[in-house]
């Protein structure tokens, strides 16, 4: 170990001595090799590296930042030592024999482009469809349409490969292939949905390869091994399907056991399987060249223009001459009742001659012109050559004769779905990204070269097959016309068995690789934790083998095998692969258009237009192949997407969908900023002010629940709270409070945003929230808060002063205000039964009182409650006409509500309006005693009212007596107040502000000047401050009596909220007025409009 003390010798000697003796001199301690030991692959890890990050005191200026920010030298050392190892899918067959006592040295990936990407892609692309269905597709669709099918599918995969190359070279791609790329580019929802679709596609591909293996085995290698044998021709297809099911299940079980026992054996055999594919392709091209000089001898027997199955007879003759004697052949016995020359034969057999043509006429034969056009037809359609023949009168009898027929109905879109699996497999290179020496260079080059190579092979095969093979042989799917030989094998050189054996092992290898890759893909998805119910499949054997995932894969694969038809399984997996490719293109296009800062792929030959073209082509191919399979695949992906969205674990992977959401939100906010919302679009955008207890938990969670009921998930909700102090000192508490609020919002199902502000005092903090919450046009227009129920018991006067200042500031900001009293008694999730929502409409507030009950009734909790509207009339108003007008107004508003007009005495009406905009000048110590007396009076009256229900005549004198008591109390208090005020020389009358129209105000003033004006009105305009406070309290008492009498049993009472006095001297009186006004009511929502109309009668 070396100790290096770097000291600048620019200082003088005494200064150097002082510095060297300082206890805080920093020494860089390094290992013997001179490099700090790195114990974590993460750049910002500081647990073990704090002693090594600060390497020299010449960086003393940045000393305080070294704990959180590493030096550049340390950063570069970590990046240089990074190794791209497979995450979660590396094989563990080479486990340490010492049971982990000694850890093996992990070798760096060494695979290059050719071995690591090109050959695996080549092996996965070239497969079962080429050997078993390519000739049939060319014969059925014709050379032109087959060329179009191949070109479309290969173009789709090439465009997808370009998009995939851009994604794969945009940073390090750990093993996981397409799933990792899509999930990190489009987010966990899309990643999980498409990852599972890719998994299902890979699983069904395994089923397809196994079915191909069994078809080769039972049709071309050992036909006698069939368990189920058909007695007549009609049962042949069903017998073949049953044989496929039995042998396919056995083959699947065997392959699953091989994968379970050891994947390393599959990997070692991969080269053998690849050699089989390459040799088979070379044998095909060698056979094509040989047909130029010496075409192979594969005669095809035709009866008229109909193709015969050439495995029930040895000679293509009706009769043969043996020893100058005409005898019938085996072919005769197939069409006639007996072998006699005079026996009854099939009509078509008698009318047409037997001819023999060469099945492989050769490249220079000119047969290409006959095979240029399509020959689609229904199931059981005869395979006929384009030549003259005599038709029979009853063609229905031909089905039981040895003719070659279509086993399924054929059409263009079907062939697209069957062919597309032959171009899949382009992800093989990206799936091995963890094993590549330079994945960012190898994946694009290897994948694109492999697709280009296979495209050339497929397109050339289309032309060469059509130019070398007779059309009826091409349309013969199982080679019945060429003695049950594989059609593509008849063209190969040196023997058809080269193709048969090669294709057999190729299909076996592809099936094993599918059963190897699919479980690991499912394991990677399960370990990401985005799909909760799949977590069990993330576990496996001790060595990491995905046992449970393999079991599920085998079960899904078995469903494909039970389908038993290669032609039926192929379109299914085409859907899942096309879905995967579609989202790869979408991911690339989104990242390119959004221009996210992290989008810097090394592969430069991409463009968003190419990605959109590939995406469109994938979507088109899905619906061309099978529109109902496409809908099912999209439905499955959508269900998985929604499941992950609502139940899955939240992941933040910096995906493109989040970037798209940000761009869309920015665009929408800019549009909203252009103009305020129209009245028709107005809805309460809430700022909910919460109080927190000493442990930073929400005091009134029911307020959040009420927010949910009011909003129903629509519009903006900002939940805010204020902490007292400074942000530097309260940062931890602020984060804890924000987390607690988010937890409460989640528990109450409140969708919105949380904002916690730290301020030197609560008043300023609330003011900051009211002013600055929201962004651009997405700002709140309504403030919701709880009534400060303990304001009288609190020793801190700021508790109620902050409330009043909040009311003033919302009014100044032209925002509506909702104050919920007894919010802890509000319903939570239980549905209310029969009940009413009572609205007391005293002053017009823009329609808030009308709109809020309508919004509440949209929620299930309040849905059964009826709406009642009460309004107060003066004595000189026509109550009946007011009721009719209000009903008509509600009719135009499309609101269903009961209407009731409450009449109050003439001299109280100005005071009722006055209380809502009252101006107080100074506090009155007598208010408290009046409040107490008034409350006791209300309680006694309520109790008496309950006893006197139904006996109104007996209770009337009692009520008058109580009113006289309150009046006498007020008179006594007023007498003292007048005496005190009259002693003061500067006492001046107080101006009273009313809320009704100016005309009414002038009318009342003129009536006051008249000699016969009533004493009540005259006193109103001559009241001193204490008098007005007492009269306001009396008004509050009387109005409270009316509200309690009508709405005490209501589920919710909505009431206009009086405004606070403009001067702060009467704040305490204002709180007393509100307290009395709300006395005896269970659930109350005070509503104060924001100064604009919020509801309209127009559409």
From TrEMBL:
One function term, GO molecular function aspect: potassium:chloride symporter activity
Subcellular location(s) per record: Cell membrane
Topology of the protein relative to the lipid bilayer: Multi-pass membrane protein
Residue ranges constituting the SLC12A transporter C-terminal domain according to the UniProt record: 818-898, 1002-1099
Transmembrane segments: 112-134, 146-169, 190-211, 246-263, 270-293, 408-428, 448-474, 494-512, 548-566, 572-594, 606-630
Keywords: Cell membrane, Chloride, Glycoprotein, Ion transport, Membrane, Phosphoprotein, Potassium, Potassium transport, Symport, Transmembrane, Transmembrane helix, Transport
Start and end residues of each Amino acid permease/ SLC12A domain: 117-313, 405-687
InterPro entries on file: AA-permease/SLC12A_dom (IPR004841), KCL_cotranspt (IPR000076), SLC12_C (IPR018491), SLC12A_fam (IPR004842)
Biased composition (Polar residues): 943-955
Reaction equation(s) it catalyzes: K(+)(in) + chloride(in) = K(+)(out) + chloride(out)
Gene Ontology BP, a term: cell volume homeostasis
Gene3D superfamilies in the record: Amino acid/polyamine transporter I
Region described as Disordered: 931-957
Signal found in the keyword field: no
GO cellular component terms listed in the entry, alphabetical order: plasma membrane; synapse
Family membership noted in the UniProt record: Belongs to the SLC12A transporter family. K/Cl co-transporter subfamily.
Protein name, per record: Solute carrier family 12 member 7b
Organism placement in taxonomy: Eukaryota, Metazoa, Chordata, Craniata, Vertebrata
């Amino acid at each position: 170990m070396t100790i290096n003390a770097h000291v600048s010798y620019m200082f003088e000697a005494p200064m150097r001595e002082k510095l060297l003796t300082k206890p805080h001199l920093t020494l860089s301690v390094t290992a013997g090799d001179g490099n700090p030991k790195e114990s974590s692959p993460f750049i910002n890890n500081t647990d073990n590296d704090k002693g090594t990050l600060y390497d020299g005191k010449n960086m003393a200026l940045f000393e305080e930042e070294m704990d959180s920010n590493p030096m550049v030298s340390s950063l570069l050392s970590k990046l240089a030592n990074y190794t791209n190892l497979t995450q979660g899918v590396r094989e563990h067959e080479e486990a340490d024999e010492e049971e982990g006592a000694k850890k093996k040295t992990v070798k760096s990936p060494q695979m290059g482009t050719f071995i690591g990407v090109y050959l695996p892609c080549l092996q996965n692309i070239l497969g079962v469809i080429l050997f078993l269905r390519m000739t049939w597709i060319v014969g059925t669709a014709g050379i032109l349409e087959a060329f179009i099918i191949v070109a479309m599918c290969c173009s789709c995969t090439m465009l997808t490969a370009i998009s995939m190359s851009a994604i794969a070279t945009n940073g390090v791609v750990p093993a996981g292939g397409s799933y990792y790329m899509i999930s990190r580019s489009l987010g966990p929802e899309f990643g999980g949905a498409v990852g599972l679709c890719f998994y299902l596609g890979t699983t069904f591909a395994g089923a397809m390869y196994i079915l191909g293996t069994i078809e080769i085995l039972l049709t071309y290698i050992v036909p006698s091994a069939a368990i189920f044998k058909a007695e007549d021709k009609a049962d042949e297809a069903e017998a073949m399907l049953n044989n496929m099911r039995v042998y396919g299940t056995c083959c699947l079980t065997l392959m699953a056991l091989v994968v379970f026992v050891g994947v390393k054996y599959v990997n070692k055999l991969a080269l053998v399987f690849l050699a089989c594919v390459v040799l088979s392709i070379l044998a095909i091209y060698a056979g094509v060249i040989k047909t130029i000089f010496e075409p192979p001898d594969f005669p095809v027997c035709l009866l008229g223009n109909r193709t015969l199955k050439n495995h029930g007879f040895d000679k293509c003759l009706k009769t043969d001459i043996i020893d100058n004697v005409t005898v019938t052949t085996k072919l005769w016995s197939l069409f006639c009742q007996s072998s006699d020359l005079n026996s009854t034969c099939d009509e078509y057999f008698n009318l047409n001659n037997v001819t023999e043509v060469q099945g492989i006429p050769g490249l220079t034969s000119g047969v290409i012109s006959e095979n240029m056009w399509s020959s689609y037809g229904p199931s059981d359609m005869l395979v006929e050559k384009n030549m003259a023949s005599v038709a029979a009168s009853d063609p229905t009898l031909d089905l039981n004769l040895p003719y070659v027929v279509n086993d399924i109905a054929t059409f263009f879109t079907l062939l697209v779905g069957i062919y597309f699996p032959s171009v899949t497999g382009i992800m093989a290179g990206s799936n091995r990204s963890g094993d590549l020496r330079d994945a960012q260079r190898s994946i694009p080059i290897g994948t694109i070269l492999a697709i280009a190579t296979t495209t050339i092979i497929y397109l050339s095969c289309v032309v060469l097959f059509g130019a070398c093979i007779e059309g009826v042989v091409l349309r013969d799917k199982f080679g019945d016309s060429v003695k049950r030989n594989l059609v593509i094998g008849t063209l190969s050189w040196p023997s058809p068995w080269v193709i048969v054996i090669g294709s057999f092992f190729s299909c076996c290898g592809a099936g094993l690789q599918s059963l190897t890759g699919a479980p690991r893909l499912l394991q990677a998805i399960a370990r990401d934790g985005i799909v909760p119910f799949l977590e069990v499949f993330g576990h496996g054997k001790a060595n990491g083998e995905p046992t449970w995932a393999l079991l599920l894969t085998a079960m899904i694969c078995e469903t494909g095998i039970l389908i038993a038809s290669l032609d039926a399984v192929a379109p299914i997996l085409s859907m899942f692969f096309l879905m995967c490719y579609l989202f790869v293109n979408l991911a690339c296009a989104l990242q390119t258009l959004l221009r996210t800062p992290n989008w810097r792929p090394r592969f430069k030959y991409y463009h968003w237009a190419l990605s959109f073209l590939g995406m469109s082509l994938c979507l088109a191919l899905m619906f061309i192949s099978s529109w109902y399979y496409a809908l099912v695949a999209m439905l499955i992906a959508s269900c998985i997407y929604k499941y992950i969205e609502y139940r899955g674990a939240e992941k933040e992977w910096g995906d493109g969908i989040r970037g798209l959401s940000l761009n869309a939100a920015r665009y929408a906010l800019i549009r909203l900023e252009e103009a305020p919302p129209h009245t028709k679009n107005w809805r309460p955008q809430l700022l909910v002010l919460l109080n927190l207890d000493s442990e930073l938990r929400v005091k009134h969670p029911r307020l959040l629940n009420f927010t949910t009921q009011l909003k129903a998930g629509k519009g903006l909700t900002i939940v805010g709270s204020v902490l007292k102090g400074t942000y530097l000192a309260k940062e931890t508490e602020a984060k804890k409070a924000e987390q607690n609020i988010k937890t409460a919002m989640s528990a109450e199902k409140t969708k919105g945003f949380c904002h916690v502000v730290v301020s030197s005092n609560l008043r300023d903090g609330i003011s900051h929230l009211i002013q600055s919450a929201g962004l651009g046009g997405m700002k709140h227009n309504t403030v919701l808060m709880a009534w400060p129920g303990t304001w009288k018991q609190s020793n801190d006067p700021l508790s109620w002063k902050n409330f009043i200042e909040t009311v003033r500031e919302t009014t100044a900001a032209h925002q509506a205000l909702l104050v919920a009293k007894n919010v802890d008694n509000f319903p939570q999730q239980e549905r209310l039964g029969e009940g009413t929502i009572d609205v007391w409409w005293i002053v017009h507030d823009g329609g808030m009182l009308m709109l809020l009950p309508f919004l509440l009734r949209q929620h299930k909790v309040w849905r059964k409650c009826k709406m009642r509207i009460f309004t107060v009339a003066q004595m000189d108003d026509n109550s009946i006409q007011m009721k009719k007008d209000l009903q008509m107004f509600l009719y135009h508003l499309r609101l269903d509500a009961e209407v009731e007009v409450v009449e109050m005495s003439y001299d109280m009406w100005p005071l009722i309006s006055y209380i809502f905009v009252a101006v107080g000048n100074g506090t009155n110590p007598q208010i408290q005693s009046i409040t107490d007396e008034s409350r006791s009076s209300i309680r006694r009256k309520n109790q008496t009212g309950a006893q006197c229900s139904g006996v109104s005549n007996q209770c009337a004198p009692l009520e008058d007596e109580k009113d006289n008591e309150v009046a006498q109390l007020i008179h006594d208090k007023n007498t003292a107040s007048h005496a005190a005020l009259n002693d003061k020389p500067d006492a001046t009358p107080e101006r009273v502000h009313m809320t009704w129209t100016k005309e009414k105000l002038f009318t009342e003033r003129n009536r006051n000047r008249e000699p016969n004006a009533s004493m009540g009105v005259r006193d109103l305009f001559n009241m001193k401050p204490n008098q007005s406070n007492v009269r306001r309290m009396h008004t509050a008492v009387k109005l409270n009596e009316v509200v309690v009498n009508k709405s005490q049993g209501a589920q919710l009472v909505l009431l206009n909220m009086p405004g606070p006095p403009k001067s702060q001297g009467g704040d305490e009186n204002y709180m007393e007025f509100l307290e009395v006004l709300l006395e005896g009511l269970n659930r109350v929502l005070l509503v104060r409009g924001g100064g604009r109309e919020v509801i309209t009668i127009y559409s």
